[in-house]
Amino acid sequence: MQTHPRFLVQAIIPLALVYSVSAVTAEKHKWRLPSSAQVIVGLAGQDRDDHSSDGCRKFKLNEKQVREIFSDYHELTSRELHDHYLWAPCYVDGIARVGARTFNWRIRAGNTLETTYPDGKKKVLGGAYTDSPSGE
Question: In terms of Cα–Cα distance, which of 36, 37, 49, 30 is closest to 90?
């Protein structure tokens, strides 16, 4: 039995439209901290190979900003991270305690958040491409 090419086109186009619309409308997964979480903001730092230490001194975050970042940022695909975010040498490290569990996080000046929250697995989250975590 031979399949007619017109039938294939009629069957494939609706599937492609459904896939592309669902990909656009899919909500990004966010990792909001519960209000009961204890957020401990550590010291700011920079990657050792970077020589722009003056700029990194200005990058600071407080507990409220960290909570907002966890609320607003979404989990990034490796493609999003590559295509839309710049690597930034400046960061602030900290931990979040939720119940009896402790999770590490690192927020970089380039609008990215590396964290092990909530499942212990490392993931990278990102804000809107133009957000500035420090409010500058």
Answer: 49
The DSSP H or E segment spanning 96 is strand 90-98
Alpha-helical (H) ranges within the chain are 5-25, 53-57, 63-72, 78-84
The model carries a pTM of 0.72
47-101 pLDDT tens trace: 876 565 567 888 899 999 999 999 999 999 999 998 889 888 999 999 999 999 9
Reduce the DSSP state of residue 118 to 3 states and report it.
coil
